[in-house]
Amino acid sequence: MSNLRVAGLGRHYAIMIVGAALAVAALAWAAYGFYRMGVDRGMSLATTSSGSGPTAAAKPGDVDPTTGRKILYWHDPMVPAQRFDAPGKSPFMNMALVPVYEGAAGAESSITVNPRIQQNLGIRTAEVLHSTMTPRLEAVGNIAFNERDQVIVQARATGYVEKLLVRAALDHVAAGQPLAEIYVPDWIAAQEEFLSLLRMRGENLAGLIDAARQRMRQVGMTDEQIGAVEKLGAAQPRITLRAPIAGVVADLAVREGMTVMPGETLFGINGLSTVWANAEVPESQAGFLRPGARVAAHSPAIPNTVFDGTVQAILPSVDTSTRTIKARVELANPSGELVPGMFVSISIAGPANEALMVPTEAVIETGRRTVVMVVEANGTFAPVDVEIGIEANGQTEIKRGLTAGQRVVVSGQFLIDSEASLRATSTRMQSAGPPQNSAVEHSGEGKIEALDDRSVTLSHGPIPSIQWNAMTMQFGLPAGTATGTLNVGQRARFTFVMGADGKPRITRIEPLTEGPQ
Questions:
Q1: In the list 225, 301, 406, 446, which could disulfide-bond 221, CB 3.0-4.6 Å?
Q2: Residue 435: Cβ within 10 Å count
Q3: According to the model, what pLDDT value does residue 105 have?
Q4: Which residues pair with 126 in a beta bridge?
Q5: How many CA atoms lie within 13 A of 112 on its CB side?
Q6: Across 194-301, where does the E strand assignment appear?
């Protein structure tokens, strides 16, 4: 009897132990179910509401209404090198992706410099200003005669040069100065006929006198010379040629004793009160030239003297060897100090215009892009691409990229730009990921928490090869993977690689021999 009672009690306790074990297992499974529900619910809230922050419809470049800042991209803080173009759940840590804003410390385009380092580097800034700019174009030119201030002295009748009073080219002459004396035999007969008619007495001689006067004009005499013959009452077979203007004898084509014919050029005289400076202007800057623009010229031969003038004409010709266009500048030369052949430095004033301006030293030109370093509101520096215009007086016009009131770096910007370029390159390399990741396998052990034909969720321990801590995450399964030997709650050994999309994918998985835990 006692033996039966003992056996009954044994069975009773065994049943109680088994029941307790089943209850514990049921509670554990329920707890895991609530955990998964909580994770999924939290991820759903994070990706769909996130307060009033970015939604699933957000994209890079949008402004986050909660912060008022532009979103550059999203990332997982635990795997910051991987970028995403939309918000959602991280494929690594089973958590919501976090936006990275423009100007943030993690953004590749921004650089933060310690204030003490800024002081040591001598970083200076200047404000972007909106003001009037009057560009000045610098060019070099050579002096030439003003061809509009030129006269020719010719022979009006056949004669002989009896006396030459100006004997060398480039001699200076004054207005009215005698140049040469010419004996003209043809004038004698015409003058004697005219004088004889003047001496005759009688009526109706006026017509004959006028005819004689006309014949003198035909042989080349001027009214002034005819008047002299009439006044003196004697023939004047010689003529004195005089300089019509003051200047230099640029062309001397006569010598004493020569016979000259009607229409033959004897002297060419150029004035020096004004001269031309033919300026060579680069073809790319020809758009700044305007006829009538004011000009200031300097010559090394005449220091401390400024010659004023204007752009007279822009010649329609380009030198194919130097790619320059010629601007004809007329300069005042009251003292005659500028002579043909001299070189002068010419400063031409361009048209004034309203523009945004920054100091020229703030502009960084790399050959492929033009950049300025902008000081942002949070004290960081960011490179900004700009389109520049003309440069004058140490200021450069900004056509696009900046607004008035911004501050730009004018000293030390090359160091900041170099740092920005290095950081951007490093970030791009990291975001692309090491190329070998797609081929390198990583191994680990963990417990199967969920399983279907496309993925498996594992609670795994640390994986040193990829610097992962212990966590629970989802892994993709290749199509056709045999999962018949795998069960939820079972421990398994697995290997995986990182896919091109940044998600881990199982390459091999097999259960451990110790069975379920």
A1: 225
A2: 9
A3: 45
A4: 408
A5: 9
A6: 238-242, 247-252, 259-260, 265-270, 274-282, 294-299
- Tally Cβ neighbours within 10 Å of residue 57: 8
Backbone region of residue 374 per phi and psi (left: phi > 0; alpha: psi in -120 to 50; beta: other values): beta
Compute the distance between CA of residue 229 and CA of residue 72 in angstroms, rounded to an integer: 101
Q: What share of the chain is helix, strand, coil (3-state, %, to 5)?
A: 25, 40, 35
Three-state SS across 466-516? HCECCEEEEEECCCCCCCCCCCCCCEEEEEEEECCCCCEEEEEEEECCCCC
Distances, alpha carbon 386 to alpha carbons 111, 316, 396, 401, 472, in Å:
18, 33, 11, 5, 48
Query: Encoding tokens for residue 193?
Result: 């006929």
> Do 241 and 267 contact (CB within 8 A), yes or no?
yes
List the structure tokens of 450: 């969920």
Looking up tokens 């279907």, which residue turns up?
A: 452
Distance, CA of 131 to CA of 353 (rounded, Å): 8
The ranges of the chain with pLDDT < 70 are 1-57, 77-82, 92-95, 102-114, 117-118, 121, 378, 413-439, 501, 514-517
For residue range 404-423, list pLDDT tens digits in order.
Answer: 889 998 887 666 655 555 45
Strands 178-183, 150-154: pairing kind: unpaired
Tokens of 449: 């928490």
Here the tokens at position 482 are 């045999």
Task: Give one DSSP letter per residue of 136-148, joined into a string.
Answer: EEEEEEEEEE-TT
Q: Across the strands, what pairs with 163?
A: 181
Residue 61, token pair as written in the block: 């470049």
Residue 221 burial (10 A CB sphere; 0-12, 13-18, 19+): buried
Give which of 100, 107, 84 is closest to 501, Cα–Cα: 84
Question: Which token pair is 89?
Answer: 């759940």
Q: Phi/psi at 124 (nearest 5 deg)? A: -120, 150
Pairing of strands 471-476, 69-76: unpaired
